[in-house]
Amino acid sequence: PLRETIASYCLRKMIGSSSAMELSEVNLIDPMVGSGTFLIEAAELFRPQMDRQMNRQFSFLGWRTCPVLLTSPSLAANFIKFPILFKKRIGRDCSEKMIEIARRNFHRAHLPAEDLRVEDVFSEFDLSTEKMEKNWLVSNPPYGARLENQFSIISLILAAAKRWKPYKMGFLLERNQLRELKANQKKLGGYQIVSESPFKNGG
Questions:
Q1: How many CA atoms lie within 13 A of 181 on its CB side?
Q2: Angstrom distance (rounded) from CA 142 to CA 134
Q3: Cα 178 from chain centroid (whole Å)
Q4: Distance (Å, rounded) from C-alpha 73 to C-alpha 60?
C-alpha cells in the first residue's frame, strides 16, 4: 500500500508554486484509485489543524476561570477555514472491491465520498458530451504481485491522456516501469518527464 507521507510528498511536489486559487479550478484524478490514499491526502493537504483543535475537549474548558468565549459553540464557526484544495477529487478503479474500500476510507477520514466509481481506464469512452476542464492526474499503478492484468506504463499514460486530457500527470513507479517510461518518451504524445524523485515505498 502507498504510504500517506509519500502520497503527501508527491502531491506537494506536483503542486509546486501553484496557488490555492489556481488549484480551485483543477480536478485531481486517480484512474487507479485503490484505497484512495492520494485523494484523501489531497483533501487534507495544507488544511490547518484548526478543525481538530477547536473540537478537542481540553481540560481547561471546565475551569471556572475559563473565558465564556472559549466554550461557545459558535467559536469555531467564526474562524475562516482554508478551502480543501482542488475543485474535485475523482477516483476510478476497475475493481468494485477497491472502490468500496476507498469509500470506507473517506468515511473514516470524515470526508465526502467524492466522485468514486468503477471504471477501467483502458475502456473506450464517448467523450463527445463531456465538458472540458482543467485536470491533473496522479496514480500509483500496480506492479509486481499486484499486477493481475499485464499492461505497460506507456499504454496507461496514453489511455489516461486520451480519457482525461490532463495538464499534468504524476505517477509513483517502480524501477522497471520508470526504465520503460524513459526508453519510450517519444511515444508520450507531447508529454515529457519534467521531474523525478527516487525513494523507497516499503521496500
A1: 20
A2: 26
A3: 20
A4: 16
CA distance 84 to 47: 7
Strands 88-93 and 168-171: unpaired
User: Is the distance from CB of 140 to CB of 38 less than 8 angstroms?
Assistant: yes
Q: Where are the alpha helices (DSSP H) in 24-131?
A: 37-44, 50-55, 96-108
Sheet holding 115-118: strands in order across?
115-118, 88-93, 26-30, 134-139, 168-171
CB 114 within 8 A of CB 89: yes
Whole-number Å distance between alpha carbons of 189 and 115: 28
**Angle CA 116–161–166, to nearest 5:** 70
Distance CA 171, CA 193 (A): 11
Q: Which three cell numbers stand for residue 21?
A: 486559487
Rounded Cα distance, 125 and 33, in Å: 19
29-63 tens-digit pLDDT: 999 999 999 999 888 876 655 455 445 565 656 76
The predicted model scores a pTM of: 0.79
Note the pLDDT of residue 20: 78
- CB contact at 8 A, 86 and 27: yes
Type of residue numbered 169:
M
- Residue 141: all three cell numbers together: 499503478
- The C-alpha cell of 86 is what? 482542488
Residue pair 188/159 in contact (Cβ under 8 Å)? The answer is no
What is residue 7's three-state secondary structure?
Answer: helix
SS3 (DSSP) at 25: coil
